[in-house]
Amino acid sequence: MLARVGFGTIKRPPPTVPCTGDCGTHSKFALLRNTRQTALRKHSHPLARSNLFVSPPSPNRTNLPKEIMAFPEFPWKGPSQSFVTHAQVLDYLYDYQQHFDLQKYIHTGCTVQHLKVLTTTGDNADQPVSCLSPETEHWPRIRLDWTIAESDGTAASVSREFDAVCVCNGHYGVPAVPELDGLKEHYKGRLMHSIAYDDPAVFAGQKVLCIGGRASGSDLAREIAVHADAVYLSDSVAPPMDETGTPVTKYNVAWVPKTTAVLADGSVQFDLGCNMNPVVDVIVFCTGYDYSFPFIDEETSNISLDFATGSRRVQPVLEQFWHAVNPNICFAGLPHSVLPFPLFELQMTAAVRQWQDWTLPTDKASRMVMAAKDAASGGEGMVNGRMPQDTHFLGPAQWDYCRRMAEYAGTYDDEMENYIATNKVSCRCVAAVLLLLCCL
Ligand SMILES: Cc1cc2nc3c(=O)[nH]c(=O)nc-3n(C[C@H](O)[C@H](O)[C@H](O)COP(=O)(O)OP(=O)(O)OC[C@H]3O[C@@H](n4cnc5c(N)ncnc54)[C@H](O)[C@@H]3O)c2cc1C
C-alpha cells in the first residue's frame, strides 16, 4: 500500500512520530516541512541581505547573529540588529510555526512522563513492530505516557504508541558542576552556575572566578569585567603563561589554567604552577550542562541509555543521534559548540529520510561498534586537544558532521555545500569580530 504521509510517499502504513519537547525549537518543524525543504532552500543565503554586527551581544541577546541562526527556508524579516533579544527569537519561531501552519500538530502543556520500548517477543508478542523498520529488522514500537495540564490545576494522563520518537527535550537545563578539592571545606564566598547569571552589574567591585572558558565562560568574563575589580577566566585550554607562571592578562581579566583546588586559606589554586592564588568573592561555574532524560528509566523503559551525571555523554547513539539498538528513537541536539539551528534541522531532516529508507548499518552489532566509536570521538584522555567528556563537543568538526547529516538526509548537493561553507565562514567572521571587541 502506498501511504502518503507528512514527509513523502513511502510503501508502508503511515508512521506515527511524536517529538518529546514542548515548544522546542527544531523537532516538529523539521519533520513536517521536509517536502518543502528542497524547494525552499533555493532562497539565497540570508547573509547576502543583512547588515551584520549592528549591535554586539549583551546578556539579554543572542550570542550568534540572527543571520546564521535562521532556518534557510525562513530568513528573518527584522529587526535590523544582528544580535536579537530572546523574545525576538521566540517571535521568529512562532512566525515560522504560523507560516508553515504547524500549530495543529503541536500539543503544548503536555509533559512526557515515561518512554517505553515495547517488546515484540514473550508475553507482549502481539505488540506491533514499527512500520519504519527496514526489511531485515523488527524495530519495536514505542509507548509514551504523558500528562496534560488542565485549566483547573489537575492533570489528565494519555498513553500512545508510536513508530518512532524524536527526543528533543533540550540540553541546557541541568547545570553540570564538577568536583573541586577544598571547595566545601574552605570556600566562603558565593557560588553560582552560569544558568543563574542575569545581570553583570551585581558583580561591581568584586573578584570573580569564571570556571570554564568556552561560550558561556568567555561571554560572562567579558561582561562581568566591565563591573568587577578582577576576573579570572579559568580553562584547561588557557593560553600558555610566561616562564614565571604569570598568565595572559588583559585589563582586569586574567586567563588562568584549570582550577585545581581551594586552599585552606580560602585562596584558589590553578594548574601548571600559575603564580596567581586569588581569594575570590564569587565563583561562577561556566561548566555546561548535564544531559537529562527523566522520562527514560533503566528499569522500566526497556532501553539501554547511559547519560550518567558528569559524563557529558549519551550512549549508545549513532552519529550522536540515532539510538544504536532502537534506531527509531533519535536524540536531537546532543552536539554542542555548534551553530544549533542549522545543524539540528539537518539532524531532523536526516531522521525523516532514514526512517523512510535506512542506509545506516542494518545489524545491531555493527551499529554498536559504530556507536562506541562515536562515543569515544572526544578521545580518551587528551586527544587532538579534546577531553573525553567532549563526545558531543563538535566545534570545527561540525561542518563535516553537517555534510554527513545532509548525506543521510539525501540533500547533499552543491547548494547544500554552499550553505554549509557559508555558515562556516560566517561563524569564523563572528568569532573574529567578537575577539576584536574583547581586545578593544
Ligand atoms: C547561555 C546560552 C546561550 C545560547 N545562545 C544561543 C544563540 O545565541 N543562538 C543559538 O542559535 N543558540 C543559542 N543557544 C543554544 C540554543 O538555546 C539551543 O540550541 C536550543 O534551544 C535547542 O533547541 P531544542 O529545541 O533542542 O531545545 P529547547 O529549546 O531547550 O526546547 C526543549 C523543549 O522541550 C520541553 N520539554 C522538556 N522535557 C519535556 C517533557 N518531558 N515533555 C514535554 N516537553 C518537554 C521543554 O519545556 C522545552 O520547551 C544558547 C544556549 C545557552 C545555554
Describe it for me?
The protein has 440 residues and is of the alpha/beta class. It folds into 2 domains: 12-173 and 290-432, FAD/NAD(P)-binding domain (3-Layer(bba) Sandwich); 183-288, 3-Layer(bba) Sandwich (FAD/NAD(P)-binding domain). Helices cover 26% and strands 17% of the residues. The strands form 6 sheets. It has a 6-stranded mixed sheet, with helices on one face. Strand 5 and strand 6 form a beta hairpin. Helix 1 packs across helix 6 and helix 6 (340-356) packs parallel to helix 8. The N and C termini lie far apart (65 Å). It binds flavin-adenine dinucleotide (FAD). Flavin-adenine dinucleotide binds next to strand 4 and helix 6.
Question: What is the fold's blueprint, element by element?
Answer:
Elements: E1 3-5, E2 8-10, E3 19-20, H1 27-40, H2 66-69, H3 86-99, E4 110-117, E5 142-149, E6 155-162, E7 165-167, H4 183-186, E8 190-193, E9 207-211, H5 215-225, E10 230-234, E11 248-250, E12 253-256, E13 259-262, E14 268-270, E15 282-285, E16 317-318, E17 322-323, E18 329-331, H6 340-356, H7 364-375, H8 398-409, H9 414-439
Parallel strand pairs: 3-7, 7-18, 8-15, 9-10, 9-15, 10-12
Antiparallel strand pairs: 1-2, 4-5, 5-6, 11-12, 13-14, 16-17
Search tags:
440 residues; alpha/beta; FAD/NAD(P)-binding domain; three-stranded parallel beta sheet; 9 helices; globular; disordered N terminus; binds flavin-adenine dinucleotide
